[in-house]
Design goal:
The structure holds two protein chains of two kinds. By secondary structure, chain A is α+β, with helices and mostly antiparallel strands. In chain A, 31% of the residues lie in helices and 17% in strands. In chain A, helix 2 runs antiparallel to helix 5. The C terminus of chain A is likely disordered. Chain B is α+β, with helices and mostly antiparallel strands. Chain B starts with 24 loop residues before the first helix and ends in a 15-residue tail after the last helix. The chains are: A alpha+beta, B alpha+beta. At the A-B interface, helix 2, helix 3, helix 4 and helix 5 of A face helix 1, helix 3 and helix 17 of B.
């Protein structure tokens, strides 16, 4: 129905090509073309953060980015974080601190947290709250998410509270 | 005989009360969990629904020819194509595809199945619908007046409908008025009690529209096999009720319907009813003879999901000079919306709070739920209790002030205690209410702050501090609202000492599978890693009534525990035969059969299980159920002990009110919850923190704006959920009353934490400013207007007719 365009980009460290509709979002491309469903659709208008990915090291809402704009860029999704030791610790912290309930916001939250810690390794609880402000969670009330991220931040206190 | 290996002793340990991470969390944190949105079937088509975009109109003509001709379109359906449609919902007043009329903006008019979402959307744009607008009715106070526009007129009335009539055994032929449901409850004599009261207060409260905002939007996949059996991938919270109801709507044998529940992106009560989109998805799959997947957009989720019940509520309460409550009279007007879902039945829960949270010797409660052209209301965590508690706790403060009594003392004087039976017949076998009150008050330094804030009300400075307390009562041991309440369990022990727990109870993110596993592992002396849970397929799991009413830990927990006990008895009996000793001298611990007295390990479980392999006496699959907990169905006057246990909580909310801007900042919440017993400390903290923040949203930021039936803010940009920087400091205490019927003493907790936040916030704002605000949410505009004498007009009292 619509025009297609060929793009070439790096996805989770691997170069790949894709033929995408020009009106397709990066989110739909990741989910429907690349088959990576860890990136979630929550609102489609950049308000909830469930679709957060890293593009050239910046965290952004993939629903607001055109797939064609991924051309020539380095895209990392939740699936790609598996290769990152720091992210392993973060994912483990989310599990151990009870930061996951329904889990639908979790991949986006982990992506945003990993970006936050990469850019602000000393983030304290207040900075973490501001850092995940754009990621909505309806289940947890955020407290345990903040605790999880703080536990792997350099200033955080590892381990659960007493 | 071989020389024994070095004797090994196993130390006692317990999983109960520990911080156990959720079993599904690693997959979820890695993005590997498959939600409905992530599942695609071979040959699948995409379904989309055309909604009315008119608030109230007659459908004159629908032209689908152009849509049908679009390449890639496999099916276009309207009501005319589905001759066997039957009305759905609690009152069976809702046809999935509308025939003669649309009654709200969300109404389904046509649907398309196509090879891609884009094609389906393009096809929707090609469907031409001709409407004739009808008068719009959106004010519930107008809806009850004689001569009001009728939303569901009977056929003989002007504008009467004939659409729902011919559809088979379950027919809805309209209503002579707009009254969807009525509830009238009473105990004692409120007239006499009022005459004997020293203080009487009355207020009208207006509770608003909010919606669930599950992060995962609604969706489903329907697929018929070549024999006509239906497989649904569904997000329902009630798979077994769904199966039966779908069978009724589709005129199928329930045995030919199978429901698989992928991981669910949030429930909160939103998935308790059958909605038109689900039935339409099945119709599309039937028409197209292909699997059809239908997933909402966020805007569609806002517009067509049910809301929390909006309520206009007038409460009149009295007490004596000594502080004892004398009576409560309640009239509520519920905006049902255009159709009836569970929201209409929230009075079942609301009246419990009015009649039984505190000892009230006389109580009169009346609800009228009326049809309007607004969105319809469903069930939502707390189920009417947020609204009822908001009113009751405002009056606890007002009455205490009227008689000059300390507000905490006043509550303690009237609080229910263990062993009491309330006026409505609820039996409080375990009750930590007073301990909740004193714990929350002491930990927050409530009394001192309360007095200090009153003194500082007129001090200079725009920021006023306030502290408020509110409490709640909610079912915590199942609820007999359906014809039955129970859960089945199958427990399978394999040759490697691994256990599979097959339970009817659904995991919706709340952590039930982890808690159920803990209960089983505790009984069998196994680590959590020995357990696998299967809980998502009606073809495999035993029956369960569904995730609602904070019932899963209690009901499914007791069921799982029963199965574990059966298994333990079998294993110990086999070990007793092997070691030629009485089974009573043995126990299971750390994956071993041990001597109970010394802890000496006799044999590891896998080896014993292999010994039993296919032997005569072995039966390694246990089946059991927990059915009909010791509670009773309410009688026609709504009296009876509806739950086997009750949850209690008190919460103290601290706020800062900026009197120059009306901004209310929630700084701290101190919560004390009677949960029976903490099973999983990590999980229960998460439930309470999440519930509190949901309550915070209800109190401060969330509001669906409906103007003339049109939703003005169907997006996260304009519907304000609480974000991370706004959360208060949260201090949680658990009051462990060890309920006699609860599994390991536990009671339900899922809904409780959301219930009293708004009520305590209202009291805190009053404490800070001396101004009582009876409407929600406490947005800056509403608070500013109230503080500066520009408050809304007093709300009209709901109908007081019997």
């Amino acid at each position: 129905m619509s025009l297609k365009h060929d793009i070439e980009f790096k996805l989770n460290g691997v170069s790949r090509c894709a033929s995408v509709r020009v009106d397709m979002s990066a989110l739909d491309m990741l989910r429907d073309v690349a088959g990576l469903t860890g990136t979630k659709y929550g609102c489609g208008e950049g308000e909830c953060g469930a679709c957060t990915i890293l593009v050239d090291g910046l965290s952004l809402n993939s629903c607001l980015m055109f797939a064609v704009d991924c051309h020539g860029r380095d895209v990392v999704t939740i699936e790609g974080l598996a290769a990152d030791a720091k992210a392993d610790a973060l994912r483990a912290a989310f599990v151990e601190h009870g930061a996951v309930q329904c889990g639908y916001c979790t991949p986006g939250m982990v992506m945003q947290a990993s970006h936050l810690l990469a850019t602000h390794p000393d983030a304290d609880a207040e900075a973490i709250k501001r850092g995940i402000e754009g990621n909505l969670c309806r289940c947890t009330g955020y407290t345990k998410i903040v605790e999880a991220i703080a536990s792997v931040s350099r200033t955080g206190k590892p381990g659960a509270r007493s | 005989m071989k020389v024994a290996e070095k004797t090994k002793f196993i130390q006692p340990g317990t999983l109960i009360g520990k911080r156990i991470p959720k079993m599904d969390a690693p997959e979820k944190a890695s993005g590997k969990t498959r939600y409905i949105h992530d599942i695609d079937l071979p040959g699948q088509l995409y379904g989309k629904i055309l909604r009315s975009e008119r608030v109230h109109a007659r459908i004159k003509h629908i032209d689908t020819a152009a849509a049908k001709a679009l390449p890639g379109v496999h099916a276009v359906i309207t009501a005319a194509d589905i001759v066997d449609q039957r009305p759905i919902g609690v009152a069976k007043d809702h046809l999935p595809l509308k025939t003669d009329k649309v009654r709200s903006l969300r109404d389904e008019v046509a649907a398309v199945a196509a090879e891609s979402e884009q094609i389906a959307l393009a096809a929707l744009r090609l469907i031409k619908v001709e409407y004739e607008d009808l008068p719009i009715l959106t004010d519930p106070a107008e809806a009850i007046k004689p001569g009001a526009t009728l939303i569901h007129p009977e056929p003989r009335q002007p504008g009467g409908q004939d659409a729902l009539k011919p559809s088979g055994p379950v027919a809805f032929t309209g209503k002579p008025d707009n009254i969807a449901m009525r509830f009238d409850y009473c105990h004692g004599d409120v007239v006499q009690a009022e005459a004997e009261s020293d203080a009487v207060v009355e207020d009208t409260f207006k509770l608003h529209y909010v919606t669930h905002c599950c992060m995962g939007v609604s969706g489903m996949i329907a697929d018929f096999d070549s024999s006509g059996n239906l497989l649904m991938y569904s997000n329902t919270q009630v798979p077994f009720l769904h199966k039966r109801e779908f069978a009724e709507y589709l005129n199928m044998d329930p045995g030919r319907i199978r429901i698989i529940q992928p991981a669910i992106g949030g429930g909160f009560g939103s998935k308790l009813d059958i909605y038109p989109f689900e039935v339409i998805c099945v119709f599309l799959a039937r028409a197209a003879k292909r699997p059809v997947k239908l997933v909402f957009t966020r805007e569609e989720e806002f517009i067509s999901s049910p809301t929390r019940q909006p309520v206009l509520l007038t409460l009149r309460s009295g007490c004596k000079r000594d502080g004892s409550l004398t009576f409560r009279t309640v009239h509520t007007l519920h905006d049902n919306g255009a159709y009836t879902s569970w929201g209409a039945t929230t009075p079942f829960v609301m009246m419990q709070t009015f009649s039984s949270l505190y000892r009230v010797p006389n109580c009169d409660y009346h609800t009228v739920a009326v049809y309007t052209n607004n969105p319809y209301a469903g069930s939502f965590r707390g189920y009417g209790n947020l609204q009822a508690t908001f009113a009751v706790e405002a009056h606890m403060d007002k009455l205490a002030e009227a008689i000059g009594m300390d507000t905490l003392e006043f509550r303690l004087k009237n609080a229910q205690e263990q062993g009491e039976v309330s006026g409505q017949g609820m039996e409080f076998d375990s009750c930590g209410f007073k301990e909740c009150l004193t714990t929350a008050a002491e930990r927050s330094d409530f009394r001192r702050k309360f007095a200090e804030n009153v003194k500082n009300r007129n001090a200079p400075g725009a920021i006023k501090r306030g502290v408020g307390i509110a409490s709640m009562l909610h079912v915590g041991g199942g609820a007999k609202i359906y014809p039955s309440d129970g859960c089945g369990t199958i427990l399978k022990l394999d040759d490697f000492g691994q256990v599979t727990l097959i339970t009817g109870a659904s995991e919706i993110g709340q952590g039930s599978e982890t808690v159920l596993s803990q209960l089983v592992c505790e009984e069998l002396g196994l680590p959590m890693s020995a357990l696998t849970v299967v809980n998502n397929d009606t073809a495999i799991t035993p029956w369960d009534v569904g995730v609602h009413a904070s019932r899963t830990t209690f009901i499914a927990g007791n069921s799982a525990l029963g199965a574990a006990r059966l298994a333990k008895a079998k294993v110990l009996a086999a070990a007793a035969r092997k070691f030629e000793c009485p089974a009573e001298e043995l126990d299971l611990r750390g994956g071993y059969v041990i001597k109970a007295a010394s802890g000496e390990a006799l044999i590891d479980l896998p080896r014993l299980m292999r010994n039993l392999h296919f032997s005569d006496k072995a039966e390694l699959v246990m089946t059991t159920f927990y059915y009909e907990p010791p509670s009773s169905y309410q009688d026609k006057r709504y009296k009876g002990n509806v739950s086997a246990a009750y949850a209690w909580a008190s919460q103290v909310v601290e706020v800062e009110v900026d009197t120059e801007t009306g901004i209310v900042k929630m700084t701290k919440i101190t919560a004390a919850h009677d949960v029976g017993r903490v099973l999983n400390r990590l999980g229960i903290e998460g439930q309470i923190e999440g519930g509190i923040v949901m309550g915070q949203g209800y109190a401060l930021t969330e509001s669906l704006i409906i103007e003339n039936g049109v939703m003005r803010n169907p997006s996260f940009r304009d519907y304000k959920l609480v974000t991370a920087p706004e959360i208060p400091e949260i201090d949680i205490s658990f009051i462990e009353t060890m309920d006699g019927e609860g599994p390991q003493g536990a009671k339900g907790v899922g809904e409780a934490p959301a219930i009293c936040v708004a009520a305590a916030t209202a009291n805190a704002i009053y404490n800070a400013t001396g101004v009582r605000i009876c409407g929600l949410p406490f947005t800056p505009e509403r608070v500013y207007r109230a503080l500066h004498g520009k408050g809304e007009k007093l709300y009209l009292a709901p109908e007081k007719a019997a």
